[in-house]
Amino acid sequence: MTFAIDRYFGPGSTRLGAMILHPALESVPRARRWFRRFIAPHNPICSVDDCTLMISELVTNAVLYGRSDEPWLVRVEWYREGTSLRVEVHNPGFPANVRMRHPEANDAHGRGLLLVDSIADSWHAGPSRLGGTMVSFAVADAWPQ
Questions:
Q1: Any bridge partners for residue 4, and if so which?
Q2: For residue 38, which of 11, 68, 4 has the smallest C-alpha distance?
Q3: Which parts of the chain fold into alpha helices (H)?
């Protein structure tokens, strides 16, 4: 399985990195590992464990719910915006279908966005500039001022 990592962030860009993953569940642990590896040199003071957990949830949702008649990929990008970290996950599909569920205690699924909502300072879902859906989260005070 192939994948790509993009660490280029040109002058004035807030993007710290990006990765492109196949829409398979094997991509979820890969996203965690690569995010950890490529965020470490930027020395965030926020919980990288919390961020990788949220990335896991959003990549899992992208893989499970992304839809396209054409071959497609999941794209994860992370940005430093002042002292905040913003992570975006892009996939094909319909943005209107992204919603937070309220599962029963014995439900096996449906807690991903609840988890993101409880950990992140904010999250957003909407149309992706790449077409399809983008779901993002932000962690304030990820770096000192």
A1: 20
A2: 4
A3: 27-39, 48-65, 112-119
Residue with tokens 């892009």: 90
CA distances to 25, 119, 133 from 129, rounded to whole Å, are: 24, 25, 8
**Per-residue pLDDT reduced to its tens digit, 46-94:** 999 999 999 999 999 999 888 888 889 999 999 999 999 999 999 987 7
Determine how many CB atoms are found less than 10 A away from the CB of residue 72: 18
Q: Are 17 and 10 in contact (CB under 8 A)?
A: no
Contact 71, 11 (CB under 8 A): no
- 118: CB partners within 8 A, 6+ apart: none
- Burial 82-108, CB ≥16 within 10 A → b, else e: eebbbbbbbbbbeeeebeeeeeeeeee
Each residue's pLDDT tens digit, 95-143:
767 777 776 767 666 678 889 999 999 999 999 998 899 999 999 999 9
Q: Which amino acid is at 1?
A: M
CB contact at 8 A, 138 and 46:
no
